[in-house]
Amino acid sequence: MEVRENALEPGGSQLPACHKKIKPYIHKTPVLTSRLINEITGAEVYFKCENFQRMGAYKMRGATHALLQLTDEERSRGVVTHSSGNFAQALALAARTLGVTAHIVMPTSAPEVKKKGVLEYGGIIYECEPTLAARNTAASEIQQKTGAVFLHPSNDPDVILGQGTAAFELLQDYPQLNFLLLPVGGGGLIAGSALAAAYLGNNCKVIGTEPFEVDDAYRAMISGKIEENKTTNTIADGLKTQLGSNTLPVILDKVERIIRVEEQEIIDAMRLIWERMKIVVEPSSAVALAGLYRERKAFKDKQVGIVISGGNVDLSALPF
């Protein structure tokens, strides 16, 4: 599937206009803290709670921005994407809000709670095998049949900018942050967040976190090229995708490093947030806290921002 290239300004100068455009359609999510988590990690941690965003994840921001950037003629043809869950729900809801038809390709392995969300938001689901090749093939066929505009869930420039508005809000409210820790899947959130940090110019370092089981971003920062994952055996279902042609250059240029974490560390971090902060977060959202705890000596006495990416969980299949 074709994706627009080179549409991102390296200094993040497009973010204020992007944020202004999507503001009427999104929530400005709260920032929470936990005294206990601060004591456990040795850092002062600020959680930007995108689990309270419309449809339950930060991806509402990118989906909304991408749709608003389309012409009326393009919106009349509908849109198509492929996603294991959160972008699928985000695009379905954003499309319904703006009166656009949304065709959503989802792998058969996608959580049932996320499929249900897409249907409730009015999206049309097409199931495929759980491989990137199968996703692309199905989306291409739908595009050819319907004339719908393809929107990549993480590599589209307008999606990346929209995702960056969560960090944009966090860093505007807490400009003193030393670090920003983010989960990495397709790279849209961390790339957009890195652009936000660059634009606001407060010397906040951006660090990625990902499971050992899907560590393509870690390897890509070493090789300088897009890497593939041979397995996707992780509880963090939202991070099973790989970097793209637009996200990788931003990450190579603006991200400090990637911290990898074990599956049990993700589960422990997720449980800690549920038990101590009393909020529902999905496994992918806990990866950043797991990374902070794993390398807590590096963040001792620092102020750290974490974007809790989403809270769409299958309550019948909790890992604890």
Automatic annotation (TrEMBL):
Cofactor: pyridoxal 5'-phosphate
Keyword annotations of the record: Lyase, Pyridoxal phosphate
Source organism superkingdom: Bacteria
Record CDD domains: Thr-dehyd
One annotated GO molecular function: threonine racemase activity
Gene Ontology biological-process entries: D-serine biosynthetic process
Pfam families: PALP
Domain Tryptophan synthase beta chain-like PALP positions: 23-310
Matching SUPFAM superfamilies: Tryptophan synthase beta subunit-like PLP-dependent enzymes (SSF53686)
Family: Belongs to the serine/threonine dehydratase family.
Listed name of the protein: Pyridoxal-phosphate dependent enzyme
Gene source species: Muriicola soli
